[in-house]
Backbone:
């Protein structure tokens, strides 16, 4: 029996790898396995999702900012080559979703072996651009209602999209920006770097959710933009937009912004 283990600080998340469906890639090592939690994407040894839990991550990443915008017509996703974020963004009926992914192989192999995009990556409103996200936002002359950053664990190119320079450029073309900000428990150096690099952003907040197959299971997100909503308003928009989700709801949205004291301390340091 084969086991896949992702290690962090002397601990590990272990999952049975029943079958290796794909291994390859030139830009980064891409592995796709069949596991007890469904198909699983691994990039450079780090689990990106399993089919069973990916909705917990993608729904919280996407619906929190999309719901806060009164009319999210134009959406930009940086990273997200698996198509999970694009699938969720389309539920709000935008006119366009631009996905900027640095590695074309992730898109190709996720379509071929996984399919969590539910066809979103072939939707006529979705345009995929193969480029480094930082170059795209620096040269971009368009405005987006919502920018969603769905990047990988810290590495040489994902750190570009967690830099101050990136946040400045991204916020310059967006009403609302959200980024996943890793495990605040196991990846504190990276989390603190995001806190520091984004400190200048107006109305910046962090929120959390769970994601069983990620290090510690506790995941964080950073959002910036001038919109506030109460629970009743979120419920109303959810109904009006006829959204169906398995994890996200108005109560989860509000509760996600309640942070434990040890995280608040990291934010104030
Ligand atoms: N949900 C995942 C997580 O947090 O573990 C992220 C999944 S998604 C597959 C991440 C994608 O971001 C990868 O396909 C990777 O190639 C892409 N990516 C990383 N750095 C990037 C950059 N600088 N510009 C554009 N895409 C990038």
Residues:
């Amino acid at each position: 029996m084969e086991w896949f283990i992702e290690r962090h600080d002397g601990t590990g998340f272990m999952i049975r790898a029943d079958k290796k469906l794909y291994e390859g890639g030139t830009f980064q090592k891409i592995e796709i396995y069949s596991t007890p939690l469904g198909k699983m994407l691994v990039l450079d040894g780090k689990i990106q999702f399993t089919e069973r839990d990916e909705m917990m991550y993608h729904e919280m990443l996407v619906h929190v900012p999309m719901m806060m915008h009164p009319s999210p017509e134009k959406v930009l996703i940086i990273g997200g080559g698996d198509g999970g974020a694009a699938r969720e963004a389309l539920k709000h009926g935008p006119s366009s979703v631009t996905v900027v992914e640095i590695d074309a192989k992730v898109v190709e192999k996720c379509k071929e072996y996984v399919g969590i995009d539910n066809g979103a990556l072939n939707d006529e409103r979705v345009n995929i651009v193969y480029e480094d996200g930082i170059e795209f936002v620096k040269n971009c002359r368009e405005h987006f209602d919502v920018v969603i950053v769905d990047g990988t664990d810290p590495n040489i190119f994902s750190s570009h999209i967690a830099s101050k320079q990136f946040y400045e450029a991204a916020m310059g073309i967006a009403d609302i920006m959200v980024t996943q900000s890793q495990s605040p428990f196991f990846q504190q150096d990276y989390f603190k770097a995001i806190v520091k690099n984004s400190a200048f952003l107006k109305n910046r907040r962090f929120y959390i959710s769970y994601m069983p197959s990620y290090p510690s299971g506790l995941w964080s997100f950073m959002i910036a933009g001038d919109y506030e909503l109460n629970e009743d308003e979120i419920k109303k928009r959810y109904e009006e937009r006829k959204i169906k989700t398995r994890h996200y709801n108005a109560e989860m949205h509000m509760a996600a912004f309640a942070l434990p004291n040890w995280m608040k301390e990291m934010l104030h340091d």
Notes: The mean pLDDT is 96. DSSP finds nine helices and 13 strands in the chain. The domain at 54-268 is CATH 3.40.50.150 (Rossmann fold).
